[in-house]
Amino acid sequence: MSKVTDNSSISTSLLAPVYIVPIKQHIGEVCTPIVSVGEQVFRGQKIAKSQGYVSVPVHAPTSGKVVKIEEHAIPHPSGMGLPSIFIEPDGNDTRDESLKPISDYREKDPAELRERVRICGVAGLGGAVFPTFIKLLKDQRNPIETVILNGIECEPYLTNDHRLMIEKSKQIVTGLDIIMHMVGAKKAIVAIEDNKPDAAEALRKAVESQPEMKHVEVHLLPTRYPQGSEKQLIQVLTGKEIPAGKLPMHIGVLCQNVGTTWAIFDAVVRGNALTERFVTVSGDAVPRPGVMRVRLGTPMRFVYAQHGLDHFENIHLLHGGPMMGERLKGPDVPVVKSTNGLLAMHSDTMMKAHKVEQPCIRCGHCGVACPINLVPNLLADQCRSDLFEKAESYNLFDCIECGACSYVCPSNIPLVHYFRYGKGQLAQISRAKGFADASKERSEARDIRIEREKAERAAKRKQVRAAHKPKPSDEMKTEAIKTDEKAGEEKPTDEKPESKGSES
Amino acid sequence: MIINLSSPHIHGGDSVRMTMISVILALMPAGIVSVYLFGWLAFMLITLCMVTCVATEFIVLRMMGRPATPIGDGSAALTGLLLALTLPAYIPWWMVLLGSIIAIILGKQLYGGLGYNLFNPALAARVILLISFPLNMTAWIVPMHVGAPIIDLYNFNDCFNLFLFGPEAVARTLDAITMASPLGHIKTEWSQGIGVTEALRNYDYSYLDAFLGLEAGSIGETSAIALLIGGIYLLARHTISWHIPFTYLATVMVLAAIFNMIDPAHYAPPLFHLLAGGLILCAFFMATDPVSSPVTAKGRIVFGIGCGILTWSIRTYGGYPEGAMFAVILMNCAVPIIDHYCRPRVYGR
Q1: In a domain, A30, yes or no
Q2: H/E element, A295
Q3: Of A401, A425, A441, at which residue does a domain stop?
Q4: Cβ separation of A322 and B295 shorter than 8 Å?
Q5: To the nearest whole number, what is the mean pLDDT of chain A?
Q6: Least confident residue range of A22-26, A191-195, A270-274, A474-478
Q7: A2 within some domain
Q8: Are B80 and B54 in contact (CB under 8 A)?
Q9: Which of A459, B148, B236, B297 has the fewest beta carbons closer than 10 A?
Q10: What is the pLDDT of residues A74-103, one digit of tens each?
Q11: Is A432 part of a structural domain of the chain?
């Protein structure tokens, strides 16, 4: 019922009147703009350069003029903003030709291809937007044996990966081949859920049409949320778990989403930087739902309008799927690399899922639903009672926030909300502890310094005294000096006022 | 409030009310059998328990100045029904009233209401009644269809008089209209030096009767088949998991089998244990009460085994003939610590 868009083919968005390109669209460090207002840019031209390792550059979605660079709201529930580059299209959509297509990728050095993927700005398009080139490392210590092509489609309502697999199956398979070449993997598994037999068929055909890809298997898995999550998918396919704190590569596996794989193909074979993505526009408030090919930076209002949605009263907008997506404050935010879905739901539909919380009856359904075996109801109790350290010892930070527990809860407890609260509070506690430790260190260093200075002063005084020995007749004076000397040696606290004075 | 909606934004549609209603539905076969066996007495008992429980919950919530919305979740009605099914067909009406009030106030609301009670409220009330009024609570009315009826339980007037004014009102003594339950019988006989096998023979015990429910006992506990139908419905609906009922019953059976093999004269056979007393009701409906049982699968297995050992031990060595409710109540105390130590291994750790 929710997947209403799985049979309609992908449409392409019209050219928007303005593009708003936030300078950070991935997980990692923020980029710096390298264009100035008034400058002409071309499609695919780098307009913000990456800083640091975990970062990828940002590119112009079309040709046109940079009209302003200022802070603008990004898709985030808080409505927070980021510096964004506004581009007014000239309508020609002229491409930046600096990157040459690479058709003989098998002959190329994996490092060169990896650099290509990086400078094209590819990040995980499943929604996590982790810079892709980092995962595509051919590492002797952690050789990749199996590449998993993730065609699970992480959430209800979303069908962008589904449509992509049907309509771009050959390109995706080529992308997979590129990935296998880059990491030196011998084997690949294409994982698709059994509610998408047409996609599996399309990919199977595409694999069979390329004789050199005989080590690629297409697996049809039973439909089960949250199987699209990397950890769960790897567990289902290989039976192996990723040890806590490790990455898939540590068990010889690399997992790539089909959308990302297509982007890798586009970057390598065609020399296109990542300037567009496939977005599911759906939800019960959207008159004409469908999957759309949208340039990054397109205002969401413009995307919704093309699907017949113009009025946003009593409508909730979601960025992403219904299980993990974030609620948006309004439609005036741009499409970014993580935008896999744009949902619009009527308020009463939404309120059905957000009923008043009732007491936990400890039925344990949440624990059965949890893909990583937490005991969500106990964790929620701890977070609610501010027992954050206890919650941490119950592995709160292992929660992937998939929402399965909240979904099944008969008492409508927003469990994931409590977990986010608990994680936030723990982060704050550890920050505060960091501050406290630092100031403790500072204060200890100060005490040591004061001691040292005191000792130095005392030594100096001794020297001076030795130089000006008092006359033996002046008894009173000698007595006084003796006491002073004693005090200087044995009771350092007496000198406190003096040291304080010297410090200020 | 709309501003801070956090994901997920869809919900499976399960609710506390549906959970409670499904358990009430699952108890319907047992309820119907109880009325078939104990006529108007069972009907009046069930009605009084359920009405009193709901009314008490309503009044208590009002007294505490809390909204009375939890009434709608059906948990009080369920507590009333469960309590009624564990009572003998005849106990004075005021005991029924007292038990229901105890169940809601002492068993539930004093702990903070639904979800916070340490003990199963119905069982807690049942245990308090048993300890307070041992005579009435172990006097089992002879059911219909078991031998010749002493009083006609399908006669409304007789039942009403008995229920309100006691056995004297129908010109009987309590002893005349009651009989021993199989568990009580073997306990008494053993104390007089008569072995289990002999005791069952002179009781005219039949496994088939016990399976169908044609024997003395609490109104809802006698019929194994009716309870099993309800239990299977709950399992199929995933309202309860198999862990507690299975391990509970299996533990009792295994212990009974081992000791029965060692000394059949002293230790009752496993099938007798399974069908006797409140074991099946406790295993499927009391021990599985989500609030007062562990949340994890491992914990539920430990809980079920614990209940089984205690039930068999109390029945065999204890002063009371039946131990199932004591076993569950005792294991309820251990739930927090079971939950702590029986957490599943977290992914990747």
Answers
A1: no
A2: strand A290-295
A3: A441
A4: no
A5: 89
A6: A474-478
A7: no
A8: yes
A9: B148
A10: 998 888 899 999 999 999 999 998 999 998
A11: yes
Instruction: Please give the tally of structural domains in chain A.
Output: 2
What chain A residue is nearest to B3 in terms of C-alpha separation?
A329
- Segments forming the whole domain that contains residue A454: 442-503
What long-range pairs does A469-478 form, CB within 8 A, spacing at least 24?
A: none
Q: Same structural domain for residues A363 and A405?
A: yes
User: What's chain A's length in residues?
Assistant: 504
| Spatial contact of A120 and A296, defined as CB atoms under 8 Å apart | no
* A362 & A434 share domain: yes
Contact: A322, B296; criterion CB under 8 Å: no
Q: Please choose, from the candidates B236, B250, B238, the residue with its C-alpha nearest in 3D space to the C-alpha of residue B308.
A: B250
Q: Are residues A373 and A387 in the same domain?
A: yes
Chain B CA closest to residue A371: B347
- Nearest CB partner across the interface for B8, out of A244, A367, A416: A416
Judging contacts by C-beta atoms under 8 Å, the chain B residues touching residue A407 are 8, 10-12
Residues A436 and A447 in one domain: no
Q: What is the mean pLDDT of residues B296-321?
A: 95
Query: What size, in residues, is chain B?
Result: 349
Cα–Cα distance for residue pair A277/A335, rounded to 1 Å: 9
pLDDT tens readout for residues B52-80:
999 999 999 999 988 887 788 899 999 99
Please tell me the distance from the alpha carbon of residue A431 to that of residue A435, in angstroms, as a whole number: 6
| Residues 345-404 (A) with a CB less than 8 A from some CB of B | 345, 347, 350, 352-355, 358-365, 367-368, 371-375, 377-378, 394-395, 398, 401, 403
Q: Is the pLDDT of residue A18 over 90?
A: yes
> Is A426 in the same domain as A460?
no
Q: Tell me whether residue A396 is in a domain.
A: yes
Same domain, A450 and A429: no
From A395, A412, A441, the end of a domain falls on: A441
Distance from CA of A90 to the nearest CA of B (A): 38
Which chain A residues have a beta carbon less than 8 Å from that of B339? 375, 378
* Contacts B239 to A, Cβ<8 Å: 363
Q: What is the ipTM of this complex?
A: 0.89
Domain identity same for A475 and A419: no
Q: Which of B33, B87, B29, B24 is nearest to B213 (CA)?
A: B33
List CB contacts (< 8 A) between B291 and chain A.
Answer: 361-362
Residue B95 tokens, joined: 């005991």
Chain A residues whose CB is inside 8 A of the B343 CB are 375, 378, 394
- Per-residue confidence (pLDDT) for residue B180, from 0 to 100: 87
Helix (H) or strand (E) holding B200: helix B196-203
pLDDT of B170 reads: 80
Is it the case that residue B21 has pLDDT exceeding 60?
yes
For the entire predicted model, the pTM comes to: 0.86
Q: Which of B9, B18, B297 sits opposite A410 (nearest CB)?
A: B18
